[in-house]
Amino acid sequence: MFALRRFEPGEVVETAPVLVLRCDFSDIPELLKTYVFDWEHLTGVPRSHALALGYGGMYNHANPSNLRYEGDARGAVMRYIAVRRIDVGEELTINYSGEGGHHEAETDDWFERHDVVLIKD
């Protein structure tokens, strides 16, 4: 995902609808586990995970990233918000390891914790 225009800090880049899955993480099919967000942690809705629609499930990882995200349980949406100026053509990223949608994390271990093997060029 790449920016087609410039975004300023605090600007909402996307508001993506979500499908909320009301179950334990262990009950989610393996193929979906790397796409869901911890909805309970983001919104307080117990035993829930969210699958972001739109472009929400397609942002690559960076630490730090140029977007943060927040969940909105009432609207059943995820908002992706610029944390710094993003120029035209720049890749839009979120931090998979960022606690609660934060754009920075001290540890960068999301891939290891989820047994995801990175594809190297």
Q: What is the topological layout?
A:
Layout (H helix, E strand, L loop, with lengths): L11 E11 L7 H4 L2 E2 L1 H5 L4 E5 L7 E2 L5 E6 L4 E6 L10 E2 L15 H4 L8
Parallel strand pairs: 4-7
Antiparallel strand pairs: 1-3, 1-6, 2-3, 5-6
Radius of gyration: 14 Å
**Spatial strand arrangement across the major sheet:** 2-3-1-6-5
Question: What structural category do the secondary elements indicate?
Answer: mainly beta
Number of strands: 7
Q: Which geometry do the CA atoms define?
A: globular
Describe the protein in words.
The protein has 121 residues and is mainly beta. It has a single domain, classed as SET domain (Beta-clip-like). It contains 3 helices and 7 strands, in the order E-H-E-H-E-E-E-E-E-H. The protein has a 5-stranded antiparallel sheet with strand order 2-3-1-6-5. Strands 4-7 form a two-stranded parallel ribbon. The longest helix has 5 residues.
Concise structural overview:
The protein is mainly β. Helices cover about 10% and strands about 30% of the residues.
